[in-house]
Design brief:
This protein is α/β, with parallel strands linked by helices. It folds into two domains: 5-170 and 312-331, 3-Layer(aba) Sandwich (Rossmann fold); 174-309 and 343-363, Response regulator (Rossmann fold). The protein has ten helices and 16 strands. It has helices at 83-96, 112-124, 137-149, 174-190, 207-223, 238-251, 263-275, 292-299, 312-328, 349-356, and strands at 5-6, 30-31, 44-45, 71-77, 101-106, 129-133, 153-158, 166-169, 197-202, 228-234, 257-260, 284-288, 304-309, 333-334, 336-338, 342-345. It has a six-stranded parallel β-sheet with strand order 5-4-6-7-8-15, sandwiched between helices. The chain has a six-stranded mixed β-sheet with strand order 10-9-11-12-13-16, sandwiched between helices.
Length: 364
Amino acid sequence: MKKQFLAAGLSVVLGSMMVLAGCSNGDGGTTTAASATAQEEKKTEMTTTAGAAGDTSAAANGAVTKDNAKWKVGVTITDLTVPVWDDYAQAIKKYGEPEGMYVNIVSPEGNAAEQISQMENFVTDGYDVIVVSAADNESMGQEAKKVTEEGVIVFSQGYEFDNYSAAMLEEKQVFGHHTAEMASRWINEKYPDGKCKVIVAGNQTIPLMMERTEGIYNGLKEFAPNAEVVATVYGSNEEEFLPMMENAFTANPDANMVISYCAGGALAAREAAKGMGLASDDFGIFCTDCDDGVADAIYNDDLIRGGLSMGGGDYMAKAVVETLVKMLNGEEYDKVINFPEIEVNKDNVLEQADALGYKVQSAK
């Protein structure tokens, strides 16, 4: 991985601190504010942020509070009703506090304007880092420029927008496409002619999740061309998806499969299918993301046959906190962290649950 360096002195306010991934061709070494925009996406940077000096963690002297913290970290997550994102936010606090971080978690509940206001409040209150999953990429890119110019690190979680300092990014359509590929192997095993009626659980409000949904369609066309998508339902969590799934099954009682862009859609599909008497060995549910409920269902072979894990909230948060500590201490770090891509099925669910931090309640 190529490397990029950025020094931010305690008394210097940087302009245009970081760049949007892929805009560049820097030559390494120390980067000035004027030349930062010439650096490439996946480079490593060096940052010193106000408040980072000193070796004594506040956590070492007791509970971390806003007043005694070594660093203040704001976390704004688009939708905390999604279990994996709530797990992620809480795990940032779990891993951050021992490092001396005070972690404040908020959510705009999908409202981009509210999220911008949250960002501004964090800056006004002297936060060192803001971790954000953006409700709107365009407006967040504009806000990130203002925030980084104030010397605050902006970490993008999942959603690519301009002017982030570092990020854990999902490539468009890839996870949906690979989830469909995993589901297609099951289709071709269960249905030799490949004819299978599929309900897709998708998203129509968050751009990246819309791309993931599109990836499901494209993956099915490529790997199971005889499969037929008979319905698409939309939501963001299990509660939203459940009544829609029930309606979809009522209209399509001969559906054989559900492919969901998220864990909530898969869990809702399982509940709806069982409640309507559709459960059988020839009925399968697959999803992107894996959480405790999905892992438990896979372990019990309870309609959910597989999930494409992106690491889980705990796994992701640990990697992010490790990166933030490096940034705040002025060490080298990876500007872009890649999501892991791990197929979880009945054969490996316990192994992966142990590695990724899922709880398989039935296995206890």
